């Protein structure tokens, strides 16, 4: 199978980077093809604007979705977007590896979605949710939190993490058709001992070996 | 009163820009002080990393929250962050004006939060939610959608927009203590006639004149 892994963390020695490297190695060892987007290492530009395109249909009034439709029809996405779009289109499974910042993905990953998930190419004309462009693909969020697990339960200090993730699961992934696998969550790795972190990496390896046998989880509507 | 208005839209002729300009003019005419952060016009850098700081406590392993605590203690935030932090600290009311992209804020605004809302300075050591640093301030999301209103109701195509906004309302604003005013939402301005858009701007003006009399809305837990 083909797997795209997107990493959004600035520190190569971080737990997120270790999860990223572990996934690459494990999936390749299992015989899969893996492509990656290490957004910080690539210095990916997350600001969505006129620079998304090699030419504009309307140079005096920037209407982003109309330009996306035009770029889809004319093949005029900027090179950095086109290459990311091709990776998403290529994969059977997409994994996002990131730290949960402010109940969401880091800005660099949000901007990757803003720029890469273009109207016409990735959605539109009724192609969304169950009829989404990527309805034959799966996606999996793998993330770390700052706090302990009890803070992310219903009634906990922050609240149920699955509700926090819903705009991502539903608004970005299900919206474009992806079937969502249960998130891989590491709670407070900064507070864990090296042995505990090794155990997290082992659990991740064990899960990934069987990941193509997993059934998607229900995300539900709002 | 002091108001900070943050704008995250790439097109100066957009409805978002018109809402931004209308708010500035209306609030100043009512005798308030207004400061702005026009993120696209400022070319604000939304990538949170070592560049957030003028000096690092640990130059070999980047741990963002520890660096934020260090920068809070030593006054070593990068100039572009320090100046945004001062605006937030100065204001009584903060307004974010943005298009809803992927059920969330644009990447440039998410990255503004990632970088500016620093541990130590904006939260930490029990100072969050009801005891948040900004518990004497208010915040208001003013946003536009792509689709029509019926798509954003419970059971609609996208679902209840207030649930989509909850990670922002709770995870960014209530988390740091802000009391949240009801969001100002314009549904599908691209589909509206000029007269309808003018009416939206009028409603915004009328609301802003009385905005300091509004009671916050309940956001609730997860």
Provide a compact summary of the structure:
Two copies of one chain form a homodimer. The first copy, chain A, has 222 residues and is α/β, with parallel strands linked by helices.
How do the helices and strands line up, and which of them pair or pack?
The structure is a homodimer of 222-residue chains.
Chain A: E1 2-7, H1 15-29, E2 33-38, H2 39-42, H3 64-74, H4 79-90, E3 93-99, H5 107-116, E4 138-145, H6 161-164, H7 166-174, E5 179-180, E6 184-187, H8 194-209
Parallel strand pairs in A: 1-2, 1-3, 3-4, 4-5, 4-6
Helix pairs in contact in A: 1-8
Count of spatially separate domains of chain A: 1
Mean pLDDT over the full residue set of chain A: 97
Strand content of chain A: 5-15%
Name of the CATH homologous superfamily of chain A: Flavodoxin domain
CATH class of chain A: Alpha Beta
Oligomer: homodimer
Structure in words:
Two copies of one chain form a homodimer. The first copy, chain A, has eight helices and six strands; from the N terminus they run βαβαααβαβααββα. Chain A has helices at 15-29, 39-42, 64-74, 79-90, 107-116, 161-164, 166-174, 194-209, and strands at residues 2-7, 33-38, 93-99, 138-145, 179-180, 184-187. In chain A, strands 1, 2, 3, 4, 5 and 6 form a six-stranded parallel beta sheet that branches. In chain A, strand 1 (2-7), helix 1 (15-29) and strand 2 form a beta-alpha-beta unit. In chain A, helix 1 packs parallel to helix 8 (194-209). Chain A starts with a strand and ends in a 13-residue tail after the last helix. The mean pLDDT of chain A is 97. At the A-B interface, helix 5 and helix 7 of A face helix 4 and helix 6 of B. Chains A, B: This is Flavodoxin family protein.
């Amino acid at each position: 199978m083909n797997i795209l892994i997107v990493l959004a963390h600035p520190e190569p020695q971080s737990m997120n980077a270790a999860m990223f490297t572990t996934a690459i190695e494990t999936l390749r060892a299992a015989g899969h093809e893996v492509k990656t987007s290490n957004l910080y290492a690539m210095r990916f530009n997350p600001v969505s604007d006129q620079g998304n395109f090699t030419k504009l249909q309307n140079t005096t009034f920037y209407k982003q979705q109309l330009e996306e439709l035009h770029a889809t029809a004319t093949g005029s996405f900027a090179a950095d977007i086109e290459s990311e779009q091709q990776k998403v289109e290529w994969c059977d499974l997409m994994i996002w590896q990131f730290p949960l910042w402010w109940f969401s993905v880091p800005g660099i990953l949000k901007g990757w979605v803003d720029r890469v998930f273009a109207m016409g190419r990735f959605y539109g004309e009724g192609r969304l949710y169950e009829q989404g462009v990527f309805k034959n693909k799966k996606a999996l969020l793998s993330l770390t939190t700052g706090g302990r697990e009890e803070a992310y339960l219903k009634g906990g200090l922050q609240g149920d993490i699955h509700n926090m993730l819903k705009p991502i699961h539903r608004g970005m992934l299900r919206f474009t058709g992806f079937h969502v696998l249960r998130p891989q969550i590491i709670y407070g790795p900064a507070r864990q001992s090296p042995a505990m972190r090794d155990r997290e990496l082992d659990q991740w390896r064990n899960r990934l070996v069987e990941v193509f046998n997993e059934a998607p989880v229900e995300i539900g509507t709002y």
